[in-house]
Specification:
endoplasmic reticulum, 6-stranded parallel β-sheet, 162 residues, 42% helix
Length: 162
């Protein structure tokens, strides 16, 4: 199953939904697709969707999917990475009125440079990028969370005492 997660910010990502709908209609994508479409106004005709979902259901969808396609939300990307999912990041672009700037591109490209996601910025390359995401041998992601917490804790203990 492909799970498309577009987040909860008040921005649409219609071009992604339209392209996936087309790929399903033409039987280029043959596996089931489910999308959380957020504030997008395009209504998919060829796959199931919901605007929003509870966090528990959202995580269950990620757990069940073979491929996670996401708008470049860091939390969603990290959840997918932790669950060892194939991930395709499709960032919202300012030039299409999908966001106020292109920070999502920067996020997607940064994760792609680490070898843990495939980033796709334009619909005309989506079919190839989906294949790439399925076939890519992923790098391991090592979180620095514990290290950062340790550094902060040491600093606080030094500055204010324990």
């Amino acid at each position: 199953m492909i799970f498309v997660a577009l987040g909860t910010q008040k921005f649409q990502l219609n071009r992604l939904l339209q392209k996936i709908d087309y790929l399903v209609e033409k039987n280029i994508i043959t596996e089931p697709v489910f999308a959380q479409i957020g504030y997008s106004t395009y209504i998919p005709k060829n796959f199931e969707f919901t605007a929003f979902m509870e966090q528990k259901e959202f995580k269950e969808k990620i757990m069940k999917c073979d491929l996670l396609i996401t708008h470049s939300g860091v939390g969603t990307i990290l959840t997918g990475i932790n669950l060892k999912k194939h991930i395709l990041v499709y960032p919202r672009l300012e030039k299409y009125g999908e966001h106020v700037d292109d920070h999502q591109v920067e996020i997607g490209e940064a994760f792609e440079a680490m070898g843990i996601v495939v980033c796709c910025k334009e619909s005309d390359s989506l079919e190839d990028k989906i294949k790439e995401a399925y076939n890519k041998k992923w790098q391991s992601y090592i979180s620095n969370r514990k290290k950062h917490i340790h550094i902060i804790r040491e600093f606080l203990e030094k500055e204010i005492g324990s």
